[in-house]
Amino acid sequence: MLGRTLLSVGAFVGALVRPVSSQSPTTTSFRSIFTVPASADASVPLIPNINDPQAVNAQEVCPGYKASNVKQTTSGLTADLSLAGTACNVYGTDVDALSLTVEYQSDDRLHVEITPTYVDSSNSSWFVLPEALVPKPTIDAHGNSSLQDNDLKFAWSNDPNFSFTVIRQSTGDVLFSTTGSQLVFENQFIEFSSSLPENYNLYGLGEVIHGLRMGNNFTRTFWAADVGDPIDYNIYGDHTFFLDTRYFEKDEKTGNLTYAPNATDPTAKYVSYSHGVYMRNSHGQEVLMRPSNITWRTLGGSIDLYFYAGPTQKEVTKAYQTSTTGLPAMQQYFTFGYHQCRWGYTNWTELQEVVDSFASFGIPLENIWTDIDYMNQYRDFENDQGRFGYAEGAKFLSQLHANGQHYIPIVDSAIYVPNPENASDAYPIFDRGNATDSFMLNPDGSLYIGEVWPGYTVFPDWIGSVLNGTGAFEWWSDEVERWYTNVHFDGIWIDMSEVSSFCVGSCGSDNLTMNPVHPGFQLPGEPGNIIYTYPEGFNITNTTEYASASSASVAQASSASVAAGPAPASTSTTYIRTTPTPNVRSLEYPPYVLNNINGALDVHAVSPNATHHGGTVEYDYHNLFGHQILNATYHALLGVFPGKRPFIIGRSTFAGSGRWAGHWGGDNTSLWAYMFFSIPQALSFSLFGIPMFGVDTCGFNGNTDEELCNRWMQLSAFFPFYRNHNTLSAIPQEPFRWASVAEASKVAMQIRYTLLPYIYTTFYLAHSTGSTVMRALAWEFPNDPTLAAADRQFLLGDSLMVTPVLAQGATSVGGVFPGVADGEVWYDWYNQSAITAAPGQNITIDAPLGHIPVYLRGGSVLPTQEPGMTTKASRSNPWGLIAAIGKGGNAKGQLYMDDGESLVPNATRLVQFSLTHGALHAAGKGAYVDTNPLANVTILGVQSSISRVTLNNASISTGWTYNDTSKVLDIKGLSNVTFAGAWSRDWVLRWS
């Protein structure tokens, strides 16, 4: 048994049922109300094209295009594209005339766009993504837009039909080429392909639970889906951007490069070149990665491609963010503290007990969250006054804020529609929104009414608000501000924003008199849906509890089977194939069928035929709902907190969402696999420009256990967003529930809180330059091809490497120490001594439960601060520095400071650190004043004995020690000589 014994199953079931059934009748999941039939969320069973052996291959039957009227422009070229034969109309209606635009937009960015030339009665309606919703990169006003100064070259051919190629001029490498394939452009289907080299390395193309490297036999679907983190399928967000990294062996004599797809020779010299590709399109899409090519298929829109030359990941990512998505939002300092949440906190009193328990166990707690439990019947912007009353909440929040802690509630994406036959079912939030044309419509102009947690609901029309000036943005801001007068929250958590609906079509239009209704599925903890699942290995570590849970699970399944009655004679499903509808767009069931995790596009989502004010349809905008609700919430919070950085965590995201919000990984499961996948998921979001990323630590769905939670609490301490969250009725998983988890959490949190200045500085650099926060080893060491798929280790910033245990029962972990062949030095965080490792060697590292291996990179200077129980307390404590001497005997680092909350700080200060030849220099610029003293400086890798230490030439005779074994110089007692503030003046610390 691991540590403390868990509840027996009998006690466990009782603990599950009692809190739920004791909720007030207005919120309990056992309400005596109409339950929507499960069939309401069923649609036409379709065969995804990639799984259909009878699907027509557009490449074999479509004619392609011919280019004509090619004209050079000051920034590139334009051309007309015409169908090269008889229209194929395979998955829609062919467009007979297209326009090609090529722009060299900067010295490292190329734009290739293909759009319909015109609209006429025979070609239905064409859609081009409005720039008001998703801005387009433009030609740099102060940059270079000529071919000579761009490392990317565009070439085209009409042999046999139109194709184009993008070449890296400096190496001659073909980056993208449609040669040998046909361009297909229809009103509901676009297809183009590019060849790729052997064993290519693509990263990005999110959101998906998958390894960091995409692989060369994988299909990515892009359709925002409300679904609990299935592996390899489409989930919440859409980021049609990828990084392509290619390794070459370099001949030291000639400098010639040879493509090295299977490079493993540790003695060879390799270099890498990376480039990026972004497809600006909001439609449902699929990207097919195959051994020799990549194929792009979309359900509409245009081809709007951007190529980023790099040639490193760092340059690609910065270019993508600075020119295309916008730089990520700077976060308030408090957001880097620890966050605790669960679905199932039943009232303010329970929240206070959780807050008090963290304090009594000595575990830092910065932020307490509530899931939908606080709502009045699951309705946005209204609290349940029986359990989360405003008066009691004001007392709780006042004390919480006095402690330097914060509160973040969930807000869902759908709005309840009151029962017209029940006068007591008033919901003025809906009334105000309806009066301002804030909700989506049916094609006939009536309200589109789906179903989410509160029952039948409407959905804010962000698209109509942006494009046609209707009231959704203003109404949303008004409701957020009204609610804040009753509940003094500190940020908002946006959920269900794909957007989700629990039924197909406008199912509530004729059923509002049934409102509120229960979803057509059981909630966790309801009879027949008790949670008995545990992580892998629970049968080994908790045999008795596992046996009891398994028995209860079997009994529950048997009862459900009996209740359901005998199985039908045949359970086979007859799938159908969609067909094109000439000159008409089939919105609900388009001719090309995506491999969508939920099946048809209208399942568990607002139907594609839902209409926005102004006449546009959800088919074209589905993937932007989550993006625009973050936009609306960001500006709403600016109204609540003028001048302060809004804090938002959202579920559904799109290219550019990072400039408004962070993201969490969604409804993962308490399994070891999901702890592992959290790393590549986080690294992918680094590429997408959403660095404020974390996952539901210890897992959301299912029950966690002590070992998994122990390991996961330590791993997540090194993610920018650090939150624990689990589902209704699962066992509690706050870290104080197990003694070993509490201790492991404190160990990892001490490191995190000590490094808050480093984390905050790293995030500031991401916000100001487009650099990444969490980093793959391959990005920091781009010339080592053995790291191409490494995603079990990662770096936080450029100086801290984390090597977590990701396997159940393991007490050690394998890890590599990249760069040692070139003189890179790594230091153990705990004993501060240098690591001995051979190039490419995978070293077995001792890692008993409660220990997470962490390493400092030589050449780094990290600012630290004495950790407190909150970020506010930490910011009042003395400073420190850890300088890890690297190759050449040097090190450098920096510290960014401001007030920690202002959108535009009145004053800032940036301190640069440099270490060379036995001296550490600190030099600051900026007007921000910090009066905390410098308490200590620790220098790692000092190779010679020390007899003298000075600060600005003044001798420091006591308070320092040198360890000849670990090679660590530890200097304490500096507070007295830096009492005016560690960074109030420049200084030099010397030793000899």
UniProtKB/TrEMBL annotation:
Name the UniProt key words of this record, in alphabetical order: Glycoprotein, Glycosidase, Hydrolase, Signal
Q: Recorded E.C. number(s)?
A: 3.2.1.20
Domain Glycosyl hydrolase family 31 C-terminal, which positions?
770-862
Q: Which GO terms describe its molecular function?
A: alpha-1,4-glucosidase activity; carbohydrate binding
Reaction(s) the record says it catalyses: Hydrolysis of terminal, non-reducing (1->4)-linked alpha-D-glucose residues with release of alpha-D-glucose
Question: Which Pfam families does the UniProt entry name for this protein?
Answer: Glyco_hydro_31_2nd, Glyco_hydro_31_3rd
- Residues in Glycoside hydrolase family 31 TIM barrel domain copies: 328-761
> Signal sequence span per UniProt?
1-22
**One Gene Ontology biological process:** carbohydrate metabolic process
Alphabetical list of PANTHER family matching this protein: ALPHA-GLUCOSIDASE (PTHR22762), P-TYPE DOMAIN-CONTAINING PROTEIN (PTHR22762:SF133)
Q: Which family does it belong to?
A: Belongs to the glycosyl hydrolase 31 family.
Protein name in the entry: alpha-glucosidase
